[in-house]
Amino acid sequence: MTPDPGTPSTTPRSPMPSPEAFVPHVRDVGPVALAVIRDTVGMEELPAFFDRAYRQVLETIERQGLHRLGAPVGVYYGQPGETVDFAAGFPVSGRVLPDGDVAPGELPGGRVAEMIHRGSYDTLAASYQKLEDWMREQGHTAAPIVWETYLTMPTPEGNPDDMLTQLSWLLVGPGTPSGDDDERHQRR
Predict the structure, then answer these.
(1) Which of 40, 61, 150, 156 is the most exposed place for a label (fewest CB within 10 A)?
(2) Which residues does the UniProt record annotate as the domain AraC effector-binding (predicted)?
(3) Is the distance from CB of 146 to CB of 76 less than 8 angstroms?
(4) Number of C-beta neighbours around residue 29 at 10 A
(5) Residues 130-150: pLDDT tens digits?
(6) Phi/psi-derived region of residue 117, left when phi > 0, alpha when psi is between -120 and 50, beta in every other case
(7) Ramachandran assignment for 175, one of left (phi > 0), alpha (psi -120 to 50 degrees), beta (any other)
């Protein structure tokens, strides 16, 4: 993955998260406007997809006079297998106009189970398993939407063990698109 311009390799984009952020918890989140490229991608193709998507999205939001409002995200729609329905992009200050492969997207509002993973992307599966086990123990039901927020970005000189990735798993139930009759939360 290409590092974000101007961002040191393993320096968090915000102050170091509290120790509680590294253990599973639930919180309410509002919807977040995104500029993304979404495609069905082979799992082995994800690194190249990230590079292409982030570069094109950054170019598009700059051309359209929008501002990036946070760290890059990767959104999984459904369960990954050999391929995954995936979007990569950034939170933005307004609605991006479709431009080539770049399109508007949105992180849904609702309740999410969350935790921060510390370490390389190769070890993300263990954190996902920890989060999934915790959700089951707590009686939560996962929706088919998960996103990663890349609080640090990899670079050749960076230490992969210092990478921070926030995992956010949308929950089914009141206040979420998958389980709430409230029309403001309904999926399109």
Answers:
(1) 156
(2) 22-172
(3) yes
(4) 16
(5) 999 999 999 999 999 999 999
(6) beta
(7) left
CATH number at residue 117: 3.20.80.10
- Residue 62 in domain: yes
What's 15's DSSP letter? Answer: S
3-22: per-residue pLDDT in tens? 343 333 333 445 677 777 89
Residue 17 located in a structural domain: no
Q: Which residue has the tokens 């998958």?
A: 178
What pLDDT does residue 154 have?
73
Distance in angstroms (rounded) separating the CA atoms of residues 5 and 171: 33
Q: Provide the domain count of the chain.
A: 1
What is the domain extent for residue 152? Answer: 27-178
Cα 50 to its chain centre, rounded Å, is 12
The answer to whether position 33 is within a domain reads: yes
10 Å Cβ neighbour count for 181?
A: 7
- Quick check: 120 and 160 in contact, CB under 8 A? yes
Give the number of C-alpha atoms closer than 13 A to the C-alpha of residue 36, restricted to the C-beta side: 21
